[in-house]
Amino acid sequence: MSKSCMKRTILSFFILLCALLSVSCTSKAPAEVTLSKETLMDKIKGGWAGQAIGCTYGGPTEFRYSGTMINPNINIEWPEHSLKHYYDNAPGLYDDIYMDLTFVDVFDKLGLDAPIEEFAKAFAGADYPLWHANQQARYNIRQGIMPPDCGYWENNPHADDIDFQIEADYAGLMAPGMPNAATYYSDGIGHLMNYGDGWYGGVYVAAMYALAFVCDDVETIVKEALKTIPQQSKFYRCMADVIKWHEMYPDDWELTWAMIQKKWSFDIGCPEGVYAAFNIDAVINSAYILVGLLYGEGDFFKTIDISTRCGQDSDCNPASAAGILGTMMGYSNIPEYWMPNLREVEDRNFAYTDISLNKVYQMSFDQALQVIERNGGKVGEKDVCIKVQQPETVRFEEAFTGHWPVAMVDVRKPIADAGELEFNGNGVVVKYSMGRDRGYRMPEGDYVARVEVWLDGALSETVVLPLQHQSRKQELYYKYNLPKGDHTLSFKWLNPDPMGLTINSLLVYSDAPVHVQHQ
Question: Per the confidence metrics, is the pTM higher than 0.85?
Answer without folding.
Answer: yes
